[in-house]
Write a structure and sequence with these properties.
transmembrane; 0% strand; PAP2/HPO_sf; 72% helix; PAP2/HPO; PAP2 superfamily protein; mainly alpha; transmembrane helix
Amino acid sequence: MSARGVGVTELVAGSVPDALVAVLVVLTALGSTYVVTSAGPFAYLFGERLGLLDRRDGARLLAVTIGGLALVVLLKGAFAEPRPPESVMRIAEDGNGFPSGHATGATVFYSGLAALLAVGSRPRRYLVGAGLIVLVSFTRVALGVHYLVDVLAGMTAGTAFVGLALAATRRRVVYGFLLAVALAVAAVVVAGPTVDAVAALGGTSGALAGWLLVTERERVTEAVRPVASTGVVLAVGGAAAATLAVEAAAAAVFATHVAAGTVFVGLPAVQNFSR
């Protein structure tokens, strides 16, 4: 599969003027792990306050999002296919290339958002979501960091997973978090204890623990203070992201991501922040 369409990527990436590369870098961030894992918790915590979606649907969106990211780690580890050659890339990227994590993550998050939002008409939401997914996927090819088949596979896998996860969480949200943990466990088995796989296992396990805490204390609809909660989310999420940036030991990556997942989801059950 290594020769899976370099001609298309080379043609598209080579046609992008240097002046537009910076714009594409900004746009491609809409599908990055950091963006979707930040937007998910904020939608979960504040979506009801803003009239966008209720807490339960926010939890479904969060479960779908982290499950989709765990799926990316699993599939990349299973296929272990390289990216296009450096001579084609317009920015530096490393790691496996198939499927595209940005395309998968964008598909999972924006499709889930379109399905669960309580504002606007359903056709319009899906149209906007599809537009964002296509935009993010295009940037990956235009930046020369993925083959066309990589982004098509990412969109396909993401779409299939969203359908499965939304169906699984229709009656009980916890099934979505359990599915995410199962995928993360599979990722560790298939890819080994890589930083990404360990982070996925930690984050999904923490999120499951947080949801169990919220439901056990019957705080699903509990409001949280915007300023205090935002500060906590940014602090804990930043600490987890830092362990990835400095390539910390697996134990540190796991622990910080467990903490981040637990805090993101469990905040409504913590009275110091909810009252």
